[in-house]
Amino acid sequence: VASAKVMSISKSTPDFLAGQNMFDYFIPANSYANGKVLSKYDGTINNLFQDQVKEYVNGTKSKEEALAAFKQNVEDATGVAAE
Questions:
Q1: What is the 3-state secondary structure of 17-54?
Q2: pLDDT tens digits for 3-39?
Q3: pTM
């Protein structure tokens, strides 16, 4: 609730959004956030994703290579094939 209040009075219009206020999208999306879909793998998957984003941003992997590595790493860590 507090974060929604702060977002409603804040403006965030970074250059990469071409002047759009990102909170105009985050506030409505926040109503769908809940803890019902959390798993013990969330932190692991998030870290695996961030690792591959860094590889892509640094130019060491193509988008396709980073996505393939992410999916394989998720499967290796969780035993569940990512689609």
A1: HCCCCCHHHHHHHHCCCCHHHCCCCHHHHHHHHHHHHH
A2: 666 666 677 777 777 888 888 887 788 788 887 888 8
A3: 0.60
